[in-house]
Automatic annotation (TrEMBL):
It comes from Acidiferrobacter thiooxydans. GO terms for cellular component: plasma membrane; transmembrane transporter complex. The keyword ATP-binding applies. Keywords: ATP-binding, Nucleotide-binding, Transport. Belongs to the ABC transporter superfamily. Macrolide exporter (TC 3.A.1.122) family. This is ABC transporter ATP-binding protein.
């Protein structure tokens, strides 16, 4: 069901989370990786996501990217509630609206660089092979990797692999780009190049970007920084230190 725009004129935010939780259960302990999280990202925003290791950044990106489901609460993408969608429908929404960039690139080893970039268009369906290859080639040119189109991922440096991964993320022209530590495995020169590509994607394509990073320097390139502490958004990141001193994130024993 589509929700009405909030003031009748503005579009709904690209992302809205309402009291979203993600609980991991083991035999003895329940961990609240996300805890009643409220979050709004407007269309075209470039937002950095910071927080200590274990604060919930990857869990949040996985839920926003429809790779995982909340244990409770509601996720609205462009005003559309995603509750109760079938796996097939989730895959379609993911393919139509979301591009991913991971720390470890996640390219497919036995596909050429150009076929890796074309792959989201294969999943989309209905696009002829020659057209897919043309679009992939255009994206490789955009990220300065066309000269490696026929190479394979294991023949690339880390910086090159991440540029290819960004081309793959952009080939479907997604509304939302989720990046999980995109510079985490890169030297500073490659990291700068990757950050430049994200800046360009934001500026020229109007994409909404949410980028998890441990690096305050790269976070400062975003328009806004969100801090996570124990699975919640906070505007007081120094709270993380106090919570840690008091025993860390919310965990409960599973009742027997
Ligand atoms: N599959 C799982 N089973 C149980 N607990 C999990 C699982 N995945 C994550 N967690 C817990 O959920 C919490 C959040 O993890 P998450 O990976 O989202 O943190 P993060 O902020 O991305 O950390 P990092 O910066 O180290 O990548 C952590 O306490 C983690 O131990």
């Amino acid at each position: 069901m589509t929700e009405p725009a909030r003031d009748g004129l503005k579009k709904p935010p690209v992302i809205e989370l309402r009291k979203v939780s993600r609980i991991y259960r083991t035999e003895t302990v329940m961990t609240y990786a996300l805890h009643d999280m409220d979050l709004i990202l407007e269309g075209g925003e470039y937002v950095a996501l910071m927080g200590r290791s274990g604060s919930g950044k990857t869990t949040l990106l996985a839920i926003l990217g429809l790779l995982d489901e909340p244990s409770g609460g509601e996720y609205l993408l462009a005003g559309q509630s995603l509750r109760g969608l079938s796996e097939d429908r989730r895959a379609r929404v993911r393919n139509a609206h979301i591009g991913f960039v991971f720390q470890s690139f996640n390219l497919i080893g036995d596909l050429s660089v150009q076929d890796n970039v074309a792959l989201p268009l294969v999943y989309r369906g209905g696009i002829a092979g020659a057209q897919r290859q043309r679009q992939a080639r255009a994206l490789l040119e955009e990220v300065g990797m066309a000269h490696r189109a026929r190479h394979y991922p294991n023949q690339l440096s880390g910086g090159e692999a991440q540029r290819v991964a960004i081309a793959r993320a952009l080939v479907t022209d997604p509304q939302l780009i989720l990046a999980d530590e995109p510079t985490g495995n890169l030297d500073t020169v490659s990291a700068e190049a990757v950050m430049g590509l994200l800046d360009t994607a934001h500026r020229n394509r109007g994409a909404t970007i949410l980028m998890a990073t441990h690096d305050a320097h790269y976070a400062s390139r975003a328009q806004r920084v969100i801090h996570l502490v124990d699975g919640k958004v906070t505007d007081k990141p120094e709270q993380a230190d106090r919570n840690l001193a008091q025993g860390g994130r919310l965990e409960r024993s599973v009742p027997r």
